Amino acid sequence: MRRLLTGEVLLLSGFLVAAAVTVLLVLPGPPAATSTAAPTTSDQDLLIKVRQAGLWEIPTGQQAQQRALSRRVKDVGRHLVEDHLKLDKEVIAVASRLGVVLPSQPSADQQRWMAQLSTKSGAAYDRDFANLLRAAHGKVFSVIALVRAGTRNDEIRRFAQKSNAFVLKHMTLLESTGLVDYDALPEPPTPSPAPAALAADSRRDNQ
Q1: Could you tell me the CA-to-CA distances from 163 to 17, 53, 175, 202 in Å, in that order?
Q2: pLDDT of residue 191
Q3: Is 104 a domain residue?
Q4: Is residue 34 part of a domain?
Q5: What is the pTM of this model?
Q6: Most buried of 35, 84, 127, 194 (most Cβ within 10 A)?
């Protein structure tokens, strides 16, 4: 009898341990840390720049489908229009939730680029389209990356990540035309000198 009771106790103990493990596996872990910090001036600037990008790239992409000589440039213009229509809706929604006022027209530089393209056609249009848009994407790409790296606001972080993916895609598309003059693009910033301690460690490692 004592042997049966001992077996039942051991069996019950096994069930209790298994149940405890199951509960631990099923229960959700602690929630991820979130931040609802008010948007900084950098956060707001990101939303404004993405909005303005759409305000000139959508009509310019539509124009490219009519004026461009290259089939590839026409296709790139179509992709820019499709992507910026989606991104434009999102930036308006995010800005509305965060109380950020967005512009309703492109920047002065963007308006000048649009005017320049409007005087071109054929191969000259293709070349200016690829180079003006590639240079513009390079500028906004660095802005988005810096905001994504340091923003304290969750919505801005998510939006910056999505925006960066679009901008990188567009840079790649524009480069695929074979018309981008890379020598005309701004030089990357000069790397900061390594701290003395790190430089000393590096020298020791190489000895």
Answers
A1: 48, 11, 18, 37
A2: 75
A3: yes
A4: no
A5: 0.75
A6: 84
